[in-house]
User: Fold these one by one.
Assistant:
Number 1:
Amino acid sequence: MHTTPMVYTNNLNLDLLLASALPVLEPASKDAATISHLFLTVFLICLAILFVVVGLICVSLMRFRADGSRLPKQNFGTHRSEVVWAMPPVAIVIALSVLSAKVIVSDEGGAAGDAELVVVGHQWWWEVRYPAAGAVTANEIHIPVGRRVRVRVESADVIHSLWVPQLGPKKDMIRGHPNFVWLEADRAGTYEGACSEFCGDQHAWMRFIVVAEPEAQFKLWLTQQARPSENPPSESAQAGRNFFFAQSCANCHAIGGTSAKATAGPDLTHLASRRQLAAGLLDNTSANLTRWLKNPQRIKPGCQMPNFGLNDTQLTQLVAYLEGLR
Ligand code: CUA
């Protein structure tokens, strides 16, 4: 489940470490379960091999210690020994290949066709589109519980990889070469996802969440996301809006219902409805949004959002406007 991102702390949190290692063993879909079983099967086979090898080494060490008095019997060119060495590993490799191939085929998303959801990887955030509904958002995917959603994955720049350990396989996101994958959750909840292909400085902070909710709730969310933005609720927010368009914000960001239509940065139409900022780095609160706008380069060094050197009044107004984008 979703935990608060650790920012500016460096004490080792064992719970968090375990929680981030366990998702693969807590699958929430059929596809993820087949991967989980494969992982466990391979792990147990490897563990058995480890025990056999370590056991043989220990026996040899104890029986033939280097006192020079007892050398083991030396055999050269024995056909039988070579067959005994070679056959079990070959059998194990074939068995592992067959098991893996079966899982790969069963989780395959196909090579073409329609997709309900399009996810585009950017350095370092996720563009999320629902073409039929006309909704665009970022870093937060919603899906209905219990229904397989076909996802087309693409990239706007380098190679990324979409991965939600509890929901399914990884899928590479390649510019000019769309790939397809299924997302499905058996139970409602929030599932963490991450980029699993090294894509630059902030690869580690290219995260997202998948919110699986009942179909009716999902439809409601989708309808809301497809709506244009609302007018600023207060004078301060109005000032923030003016500031947004006076600055170069609109060169990179889109806000539905306004003249801002750029797609280089995340769509902000319903920014305030999202749970996190900066692709999973911060919880979406006023304080964090202010910190982010004050100097994005300090929080996520190397990201595409420049430091505009805003003063406190500008920050307050901009945050008032962005927080009204529900
Ligand atoms: Cu995108 Cu790693």
Number 2:
Amino acid sequence: MTNELLNEMNATNNVNNANSMQIIPSRLQKLVPSIGIFYTRLPLRKAFMAYNQKYGITKRQYICISFNEIRHILNLAQILAMMKEPKQEVVVDETAERQNTTDTRALEAWVGMEENTPRTEEEEGDDSSKAPQHHEKLERRDRSDSLKESIDSLSLLPDRALFPGPKLICFDGDQTLYSDGSNFESSGSKLAKYLYLLLKHGCYIAVVTAAGYEYQTAKYELRLTGLLAYFKDRGLDEKDLERFYIFGGECNYLMRLGSDYKLKPVREDGPGGWMVSTTHNMESPGNWDEEEVTSILDMAEACFQKSLDDQNMRARIIRKKRSVGLIPQPVQKIPREALDETVLRIQNELETDKVTLPFCAFNGGTDAWLDVGNKRVGVQVLQSYLGIPSEETLHIGDQFLNTGNDYAARSVCPCVWITSPEETTYILKSILRLAGVPLLAQLSPVAEEKEKTETDVRRNSNVDFSEVERRATRALKMDVYTGEYISDNISS
Ligand code: IMP
Ligand code: MG
């Protein structure tokens, strides 16, 4: 049943007639030719019903469903699809009835979740979709109360080895874990706590980011300062820390957390080295020809220079070992159109030049890059290195347009498309809730007490804690494009 449904959704069906295997496009592919691969069933109806129960979209009289709401419903369907019944082995083709019992309880808990989906900029600016009226808010609160019982009944402590959600969650960095060009500064954020809880429940976490500073681990640590401080503060165990990876330069530099809360390069060569053990994948960096790498970078540099000249951009070009970047001059902003034009030029040039190595040309919001390698390879290498299949991997990112760099991950695992770190936080909270993880009870008694005290102090204080944290780390500033350290002249 499930396989038939997946075949129907996926791009091609194999039709076995008497003499040959004939490949015909699915109905969905005919309607949407650019459709990707589905690795799981997508319980769209269930997700829509829950979302509608939470937000009452069908009760609206004037405003129809928006693009962002559809994105949220698809995201919910995707995370629901990855939830297995707690305390059971992975069963891919469960019957609809068996899934129903767990999903219903978990979904009710999700509907009752205090926070609503963070609103995106477009929605904020759109008068026609203003925040709900006061009476609607009250209605929601009542509904939450009536659902409290089912939330409480969900406070089971799942066996860590049998966490019913995804086994590997890959995260984009910029605009997914921290704002574009910023660092993960706050060690008091919910996002840090949810990542901690996922690690505690046996999940593998990997930041798969285009940002590449070779194996200079301190530079990635700087970008993750607040998160690593949170892990240290809570005394996360070595075996949990070892499930935290970062892939820098898309798929070029693999690092893992060690017991001292610092990143260590994962060995590339020799027995068990990540590069040698993934050479069965032809796209893996272990198979790259250095001459072709150089010629791609030369081509990209020339193309970026021409684009810069043609469009009179206030920008400069930087070249690294595995990437070329077009970055703004200090305090200048490169228009989106100029960045997109640059990306489409290079994509077109490399495609027509029949480049065989994987690459990614993308608009990063403030800059444009050509990286040798991409997130498809990054996620795939992690999957084979860790032995985790596509249907148990989830990639969360913000750039799924054809000029974005998360798009490449779509071909190797299910994805969730977010637009801000706040939305990532919400998705992780949803995953934990749907998996039945109590959001406080998993901390050790000491950590739990600390968590409560800190939350109370923050709530009852006029102090701007993010400013305090920013000042505390301000001595360590880095140009996120080049990786150069910069001195901070701001007087306190
Ligand atoms: P991501 O969103 O985490 O994949 O990070 C993308 C951002 O990383 C880009 O927009 C750049 O600002 C930054 N970056 C720093 N170094 C590199 C590089 O070598 N290649 C691509 N992006 C880089
Ligand atoms: Mg990003």
Number 3:
Amino acid sequence: MTAMHVDSHCIFCKIVAGHIPSRKAYEDDEFLVFHDIAPWAPVHLLVIPKTHIASLAETDPAEHAAMLGRMLALAPRLAKENGADNGFRTVINTGSDGGQEVYHLHMHVIGGPRPWAKG
Ligand code: AMP
């Protein structure tokens, strides 16, 4: 496994370290999944790598393609386990034009019965 990076100013690194609480939905050696604090929909999860990567734009295919594949591959299971039985959306906001607010790579998994608050 590659070295774990931590950014001491990053809110999601603080969640990984347990210094800021979160409602965890799943965890393994590589990823943490928790409920978004401001959900758009009945199911709104954030999947993050535990290591600090600022955004999708910072990834390198040679180093990160397999990790990104594993991250995406978690989505169907997470959706199902959390009650999004009828479809879901996966979103990765990247950079300022992409609407990224937290600069620690994360994938939103959004679903559950409509109407949703957004989207
Ligand atoms: P993005 O615009 O893709 O960077 O989205 C960042 C997401 O992180 C937003 O949907 C926020 O509601 C969510 N968020 C920010 N702080 C927390 C937190 N402490 N716990 C859970 N979700 C958070």
Number 4:
Amino acid sequence: MKVLGIETSCDETGVAIYDSATHHVTHLLHTQIALHAQYGGVVPELASRDHVQYLVPLLQELLAAEKKSVDAVAYTSGPGLVGALLVGVTFARSLAYAWQVPSMAVHHMEGHLLAPFLDHPDLTFPFLALLVSGGHTLLVDVRGLGDYHLLGESLDDAAGEALDKTAKLLGLPYPGGALLAKLAESGTPNRFHFTRPLIDRPGLDFSFSGLKTAVLHTINQFETIDEQTRADIAHAFIAAVMDTLVIKCQRALKQLNYKNLVVAGGVSANKQLRQQLTELMQTLNGKLWLARPEFCTDNGAMIAYAGYRHLAQGEQTKDLAIRVKARWPLVAYDKDNSLYPQSKL
Ligand code: KG4
Ligand code: ZN
């Protein structure tokens, strides 16, 4: 089965074709970063218009390169920016109708969650998943396809959001996560120290907004801030965020008694996080599963693949309505389930 995937939930237009017979995926991406950078963040109306402009040429290029007929269309229907989602969903549903092929609505975070399968078809359920993107920080017990149980989440800012906001405080352009990580590489270890939030309390929830405020207080101690000090602050902040994520993964793995950890979403492209988690899984005799960096951030390949997995088990989105969801929980809320007594705060 050849599934076309379409992603337009935020500031990236992604199209891809996943071929289940060969397990091969071809994808094209247009990023809107330059468009939004001048405003310091995503401007939803501009995002929608840009998706309108790029979807057709991207798809034409993909179909010309692939020379493949498409058997089904998968598309992100939420969560995300409503206008941006509407562009992709309308386009995808119309294509499926015109081509008379089945279509499948995909949850954006499920796309991220399943992305590591693209490079690791030997990955099997169950596993623990840490999903770290610009909008979400979730620890999920993944027992099977669609069988997702929430163990912990951010009570305020998502990890990526905290990285982007802190990058902004340090004068870096949007989206600053990757640039902040780069700046941190030249930082002096231990010149500054930020508390690892919520680690002295039981449970698997996260909180990153206090950390960002701590950075602001540190910056305000300086009248003028030199390049090395900015790097030193970035270093301490990145260390605090990554340590917190690693500690919570370790705690959740112990709780579930799982040996397999999947980490996905934009922040999972971070070199330091990948390194620290590799070391953790080595000490635990477990295995870390990651997507290649280009499939950590938003892309059409993960949507094509997630759509394929659902279509392959007989599901499809049948009615012709154009439905999008700005907010859409991925998982069953299990925090009070007796299966997870230690996850209660
Ligand atoms: O998954 P994603 O592309 O979009 C959402 O679904 O939100 O994640 C974007 C987030 C941004 O906050 C961005 O700063 C962060 O991922 N990010 C990184 C890196 N690459 C992207 N953060 C740290 N290090 C990176 N290399
Ligand atoms: Zn995403």
